[in-house]
């Protein structure tokens, strides 16, 4: 039987996963709100052919019900909680649990569930102490997926970067902020390394597993912006002190937690070799595109 993947949320990660799954021989269905891929996805991956993906509207329950008649073997959930609940568990848990063909379900969460660890290294066994309502809900939803009758795997993602979504783009577009906060670390992960991790897990399922997705070099946001400027020659924005910087509530919440994410488990259990062990590898590859 041919593997069939259903992706809830064909966004930045979901759509590119769909493309790579097609290359691996999967049949792929995926949802968006409109039944079409959004412009961010199309512009981020201009040379990618998504024509083999069957795109349906998440808001079309009849078509979605029809898809559940297919022999779905794998489900990927990229949709975040809405109004404090998971929209899939709320509406589609029973149809998913009735899928006798289902071998694997992946839920994309966030390393934000760990909260603040004062810059210490964090692995999958570390204490989860989410520090804001958004990440508290994420942890609650993780537990709901794990407590379901589904073959759930949790993937806690660090900050995602890749085509169209990186410090070089931000400098070029004039949206970059260079913020100074002493001894503060962010972990990040390239979208291609997210996808290779997911595909490896799909091939080697381990129900109930939780994986951290991060590269090898936690760094301050200031370091990343300055390195991007150094490589490209793009103008640096002014240095802002965190305490006085005009940051959105969402941006400020990211700076409230300080931790470094260990990625040993995806390497040891899933055999992942990172395509981009740190952001510098990727920036060196794309910097010539931004030089003025």
Automatic annotation (TrEMBL):
Query: SUPFAM superfamilies, per this entry?
Result: NAD(P)-binding Rossmann-fold domains
Q: Which InterPro entries match?
A: NAD(P)-bd_dom_sf
Alphabetically sorted, this entry's keywords are: NAD
Q: How is this protein named in the record? A: NAD dependent epimerase/dehydratase family protein
Q: Which organism is it from?
A: Caedimonas varicaedens
């Amino acid at each position: 039987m041919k593997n069939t993947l259903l992706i809830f949320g064909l966004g930045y990660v979901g759509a590119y996963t769909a493309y790579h799954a097609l290359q691996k021989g999967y049949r792929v269905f995926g949802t968006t709100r409109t039944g079409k891929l959004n412009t961010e996805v199309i512009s981020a991956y201009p040379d990618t052919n998504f024509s083999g993906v069957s795109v349906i509207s998440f808001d079309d329950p009849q078509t979605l019900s029809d898809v559940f008649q297919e022999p779905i073997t794998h489900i990927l959930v990229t949709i975040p909680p809405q109004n404090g609940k998971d929209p899939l568990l709320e509406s589609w848990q029973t149809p998913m649990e009735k899928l006798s063909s289902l071998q694997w379900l992946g839920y994309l969460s966030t390393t934000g569930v760990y909260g603040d660890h004062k810059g210490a290294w964090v692995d999958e066994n570390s204490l989860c102490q989410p520090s804001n309502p958004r990440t508290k809900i994420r942890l609650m939803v993780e537990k709901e997926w794990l407590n379901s009758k589904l073959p759930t795997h949790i993937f806690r993602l660090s900050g995602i970067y890749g085509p169209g979504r990186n410090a070089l783009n931000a400098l070029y577009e004039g949206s970059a902020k260079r913020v100074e906060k002493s001894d503060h670390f962010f972990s990040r992960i390239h979208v291609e390394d997210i996808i290779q991790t997911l595909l490896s897990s799909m091939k080697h399922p381990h129900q109930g597993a939780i994986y951290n997705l991060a590269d090898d070099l936690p760094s301050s946001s200031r370091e990343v912006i300055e390195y991007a400027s150094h490589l490209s020659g793009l103008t640096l924005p002014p240095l802002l002190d965190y305490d006085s910087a005009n940051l959105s509530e969402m941006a400020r919440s990211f700076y409230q937690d300080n931790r470094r994410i260990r990625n040993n488990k995806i390497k040891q259990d899933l055999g992942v070799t990172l395509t981009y062990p740190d952001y510098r590898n990727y920036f060196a590859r794309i910097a010539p595109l931004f030089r003025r």
